[in-house]
Amino acid sequence: MKDNDKLVICKKCINDFKEIPYSNPFQYRGLYTNFKVPEDNICSKCKTELYETKVTGSEIKILFNTSHDNVFLQAMIDLKESDPIEYQLKLTQFNSQNQTKEIEEDKNNIPKCPTCNSTNLKKISTTAKATNTIMFGLLGTKRHKSFHCNSCGYEW
């Protein structure tokens, strides 16, 4: 789904499949986000007419990062149509929450020294490992290490 595309749904199927948990993005749940919209604009499952919402592709990305629950998505679709200002406020709030969550996840992926918790680290290069092994043979210790802490000197 492109950013400027409108979300197409089957109003009957989105309600019928609201209890199906989101586990596979290509499992049909009444949303035509990953499925090609039929040319006749008729749902392939229940044969009712499809509905083009006012929600765009870029907005659905924000909503999907918040929740894949059909009830939540239906409520947001209805909110955009009934109160676009409130919808934009909610969407902005969800987007900032998603960005905060991504920043927190990025912080958790930064390696830290197990001794002093510093993030001032240097990856031990393959050349340094090979040089240490050549110089000290089996007694060389760097061949099993990955990082060097620039703060306390610990290697692991």
Helix content range of the residues, please?
40-55%
Task: Tally the structural domains.
Answer: 2
- In terms of DSSP E residues, the strand content is 5-15%
Kindly report how far apart the N and C termini lie: 45 Å
Major sheet details? 2 strands, antiparallel
The tally of strands reads: 4
Basic shape: elongated
The count of helical stretches stands at 5
Order of strands, widest sheet: 1-2
Low-confidence sequence ranges: none
Structural class, judged by helices and strands? mainly alpha
Averaged pLDDT: 85
User: How much is the radius of gyration in Å?
Assistant: 26 Å
The string of secondary-structure elements, in order, is: EHEHHHEHE
Structural commentary:
The chain is mainly alpha-helical and 156 residues long. Helix content is 42%, strand content 10%. The protein has five helices and four strands, in the order E-H-E-H-H-H-E-H-E. Helix 2 (57-66) crosses helix 4 and helix 3 packs across helix 4 (84-108).
Task: Give a summary of the structure in a few sentences.
Helix content is 42%, strand content 10%.
Task: Please tag this protein with its features.
156 residues, mainly alpha, 4 strands, 42% helix, elongated
Helix-strand layout with pairing:
Elements: E1 6-9, H1 11-16, E2 51-56, H2 57-66, H3 70-82, H4 84-108, E3 121-123, H5 126-136, E4 147-149
Antiparallel strand pairs: 1-2, 3-4
